[in-house]
Specification:
The complex is a heterodimer of chains A (157) and B (107).
Chain A lengths: L10 H14 L8 E2 L9 H6 L24 H9 L4 E3 L8 E9 L2 E8 L5 E4 L5 E4 L12 E9 L2
Antiparallel strand pairs in A: 1-6, 2-7, 3-4, 3-7, 4-5, 5-6
Chain B lengths: L13 H16 L5 H6 L1 H8 L5 H10 L5 H8 L12 H14 L4
Helix pairs in contact in B: 1-3, 3-5, 4-6
Classes of the chains: A alpha+beta (157), B mainly alpha (107).
């Protein structure tokens, strides 16, 4: 489960994992870090929401807040995170006392979310696989997740 | 004249077909965060298209390797053994479907 800190793995094993991740996300800078074991307990949406016990998605049998429309649209994702106190904001710049997440869209449909860390870097859960830390939201954009489109923020809890 | 029976192309068994498709699905969706994209993947849809003959194969794979097979199981079987309060809980979903498989003699 994600801790936000690098995993204690052998150099060879870490190199293999990093190579596999880099093949999927060629935009990742060399500074990216693998910060969890592989797990199916939660996905990127749960991870962005701070919930490491559930897979969030508006599709059976995932969890989805009842207040949000049960559909994979940007509006429904914004509404789902509104239940956690998030509202749309302009950008992903680090602001003191503010927590931010970002929704990615691929062909106009939500595909991924990332969460900003206190350092200003970002953390992403990659599908069924690992959590990673990356400096910029754009680093995991591209073929699989499309583009980081909608930033959301809330006052730090 | 030596005669040799013409070789017909060997037909894949359900097990072989499932194994190829499941392997392809895992590779193609490993980093996919969207459950919608996971279940709309072509290999996953072909497995659903195998119908009820895929149920024991899916359940065995769920048991041994895990994976988000729940949507396929629900759509093929027309049943849903999960409690609404367990929505999103992978391990409880897996346990519920494996128990369903045993109850229906697929495992």
């Amino acid at each position: 489960m994600g801790t936000g800190t690098p995993l204690p793995l052998s150099l060879a094993e870490m190199a293999r994992i990093r190579s596999e991740i880099k093949a999927g996300f060629p935009g990742l800078a060399a500074t990216f870090q693998v910060t969890s074991e592989e797990t199916r307990d939660y996905n990127c949406i749960g991870w962005a929401a701070g919930d490491t016990s559930r897979w969030w998605w508006p599709l059976y049998p995932s969890y989805w807040p009842s207040e949000a429309a049960h559909e994979a649209t940007l509006e429904a994702f914004v509404a789902a995170f509104a239940t956690l106190g998030y509202a749309p904001c302009a950008d992903g710049n680090l602001e003191e006392g503010v927590e931010k997440v970002v929704i990615y869209l691929r062909q106009g449909v939500p595909s991924h979310m990332a969460r900003q860390l206190a350092s200003g870097a970002w953390t992403s859960k990659l599908g069924d696989a690992w959590d990673i830390g990356h400096l910029l939201p754009t680093e995991v954009g591209g073929r699989i997740y499309g583009d980081a489109v909608q930033y959301l923020s809330r006052q730090q809890i | 004249m030596a005669t040799q029976a013409a070789r017909l192309p060997q037909q894949e068994s359900d097990e072989e077909r499932f194994a190829h498709l499941a392997d392809r699905w895992r590779k193609e969706t490993k980093f996919v965060s969207s459950s919608t994209e996971q279940v709309l993947n072509g290999a996953y849809q072909q497995i659903i298209g195998m119908g009820r003959s895929a149920l024991p194969l899916i359940l065995r794979s769920l048991n041994s390797q895990g994976g988000h097979w729940f949507w396929a199981l629900k759509h093929i079987s027309g049943e849903d053994p999960l409690s609404p309060e367990d929505a999103g809980n992978y391990e409880k979903s897996r346990e519920a479907w494996l128990a369903w498989g045993q109850e229906h003699h697929y495992l």
